[in-house]
Amino acid sequence: xxxxxxxxxxxxxxxxxxxxxxxxxxxxxxxxxxxxxxxxxxxxxxxxxxxxxxxxxxxxxxxxxxxxxxxxxxxxxxxxxxxxxxxxxxxxxxxxxxxxxxxxxxxxxxxxxxxxxxxx
Length: 120
Known about the structure:
single chain; mainly alpha
């Protein structure tokens, strides 16, 4: 019998793998010391918003039958975990970052929720 970890689950394997890769990259970037470069997006809160917008959207595609509030809660908990462990890596924890994470998640789910209401 071949090994197929997602065969009996309601998981889109491609988007799940993409979500894991995005989350791993976000965690890595949150824990490495800042290099002082400005980058494409200079405002830290905008970076948090964009990353968690992408994570929430990708997670909803990876788990199409899951409730959005559950996905959002898990993605936000990931953001909270990052903020909790950042001081261990010499970075500052910031509740503003967590708020930006939550706003990114809400922005990703807003159109999905409106679309579901409209389709009823």
